[in-house]
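INFO batch 0412 | record 1 of 1 | parsing
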Amino acid sequence: MKITVLDSATLGNDIDLSLFDDLGEVEIFNVSPRETVADRIKDTDVCIINKVKLDEPVLKDAKKLKLICVAATGYDNIDTAYCQSNGIAVCNVAGYSANSVSQLTLAMVLSASVNLNAFSNSVANGSYSAGNVQNILTPVYHELCGKTWGIIGYGGIGRRVGAAASALGCRVIVNKRTPVDDAECVDLQTLLKESDVITVHVPLTDSTRGMIGETELKLMKDGVFLVNVARGAVLDEAAVANAVISGKLGFFGCDVYSTEPMPVEHPFDKIKEYQNVCLTPHMAWGAYEARVRCINEIKLNIISYINGENRNRIV
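INFO prediction complete | emitting tokens
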């Protein structure tokens, strides 16, 4: 059996991929530009990817391909309809990064809520030492306790964020496709209107693409905190950039983009240096422990497939 890893660079250089060696011949590519993908998978049995796009044009000549393993929970970069029609199994890895993504979500909100960068800079640039007052209390900040934290998408990540927000004293409201009894579930308009903090944790589907746009932004409170750690295309990115520039958003944090890496002509390029903006390079999922967990799960998915089982099967 031949196993091909197409974009190992996205998994980090500190991750040991030799664990696949006992399953067959392993070929590893650091990166795979679009024009190289079809040739690299044409003779492989198992393909492991993270961000590489696998659609019909690159899959049609991969006659030996039996299994695609994506090192992620989301699989919108894979043409699952084509795979299903052509007998190619697809497995994802669910839940491996929930701790990591929720941690970054909280880090963004907590840092913004206390203006951490501004206060840290006042010490680093010498203005605190040069003053004659024992403390600096501007810019003014407010407690999160008593605020309303809206969570869009309430899977493993959303639940962890909700638990932490509750522990901070926030009222937590949830917008979820299927309401649950253990959370205060509301429709999207209510969440947008009532929340002081909004964090987004939904997969990218036809129904979630562009779900936060100009209309939705207008419903939000002035000064609301908005954090997207889901998929870039869940937001109308141009509308969000304009909401930052106009002052509608008090803080905007984002780890994901409709085009990755974020190109220089991206709408967020004009807001990337704003003090109330935190843009990170799609790293929320990537704590070391999460990446090790992900790779181990992929091996178990391959073994399961070999044994005729349906572990983490999407197709």
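INFO post-check: The mean pLDDT is 97.
INFO record closed
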